[in-house]
User: Fold this.
Amino acid sequence: MKRPVQSIPLRAVILMLFFIVFIPFLPLLITWRWNWWEAWVYAALNILGFAFSRLAAARRNPDLLAERARFLQHDDAKPFDKILAPLVGLGGALIPLVAGLDVRFGWSATFDLSWKTLSLLVILAGYMLASYALVENRFFSGMVRIQTDRDHQVVTSGPYSWIRHPGYAGALLSYLATPILLDAAWAFVPVVLISVLLVIRTSLEDQALQAELDGYREYAAKVRYRLFPGVW
Assistant:
């Protein structure tokens, strides 16, 4: 029997538009440099990457977007994630904010085109990995919780056969390369902060899944690495 597709709250739609449409344009809005092609590429990648990944996820798992839209509204979310999830979201918004301020006030030297090309490829790889994880995993919630209401099961296919948390790994790749694309070395400060938060969140989420989700401990024994193949 198919589960009914739940509607997405208006509040969630407004927040989504703010973070997915407004925030990526912060470098352009702060600097007012409308000929800054790197900032246009950054904004386009964020918006189009989000749109395509969600469309693909919705076609495969229609109830997933509604699950993710109930951000911070789950009573059974893990206490640590009620703190970490908003911090990670705000940290992601700080990167384009600091990048815009950096370029406006000339705090950093520029990177050459070869570095920017490499950073663009890394960002694309990060988006592709995170999107692949989202589409493959119908339990890819915005909050860490055991989804008993959605028959939560271990996902072992796609990128989950390589690493246990490919969504976080993809996000980290994109964050790390963004300051180079935007000529904003000072943006590495929020990148480092959000990277630390993501590593902590990954560790705590993995512990919760091993303790409470049937089959996850056995999966973790087979797929050894959480974020970085060969490292951790």
